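It would be a great kindness if you could assist me with a short task in structural biology. The matter concerns a single protein, recorded as an amino acid sequence and a row of backbone structure tokens. Could you please explain, in whatever detail you think fit, how the structure tokens follow from the sequence? Thank you for your consideration; the sequence and its tokens are set out here:
___
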Amino acid sequence: MPRLVPGWTQPIIIGRHAFADQYRATDFTVPGKGTLTIRFVGDDGRKIEHEVYDFPGGGVAMAMFQFSTTRSATSRAPR
């Protein structure tokens, strides 16, 4: 692996996401001041909405997901 940071002596760890949580992530440029929210609407019509951040100016936003079954299968503590 090339040394892109001169003098770096710590180990380098490389990881990857296993499914669509990363591949289907959505990101966009926030054009200016405003409020970022995230919303879920269930098949039964139930709505969950959260305010994520109140942008004082432009920036970048990203959303990801992960299935419950994927999370439980990959998050087990070592035995």
In short: Residues 68-74 form the longest helix (7 residues).
